[in-house]
Amino acid sequence: MHWTKIPADWWRNEFGDEIHRYEILDDEGRCLVEYHIYHAGERLPWSGKTHTLAEAQCRLEQNHRALRA
């Protein structure tokens, strides 16, 4: 699967799936990073979230492998 980085915190693969990186402050003011996953064609604004880019990419890749099986 090939990922293209669009703007600074946004990736898209050849299937139209997207990953968006967000920095979120917790209750104590610490910065947490989340990667929101969007499966192409879904109506929801995001399909899941992870804490690393690698995990987000792996989830989308697994989804496509499951669809082909």
Question: Which labels suit this protein?
Answer:
69 residues; alpha+beta; five-stranded antiparallel beta sheet; 1 helix
A few lines on this structure:
The chain has one helix at 53-68, and strands at residues 3-5, 10-13, 18-25, 31-38, 48-50.
Task: Describe it.
With 69 residues, the chain is of the alpha+beta class. The chain has one domain. It has one helix at 53-68, and strands at residues 3-5, 10-13, 18-25, 31-38, 48-50. A 5-stranded antiparallel β-sheet has the order 1-2-3-4-5, with helices on one face. Strand 3 and strand 4 form a beta hairpin. The protein is elongated and about 45 Å long. The two termini are 16 Å apart. The mean pLDDT is 89.
Categorize the overall geometry: elongated
Strand order of the largest sheet: 1-2-3-4-5
Class by helix and strand content? alpha+beta
Termini separation: 16 Å
**Overall pLDDT confidence:** 89
The biggest sheet, with number of strands, parallel, antiparallel or mixed sense and barrel status, is: 5 strands, antiparallel
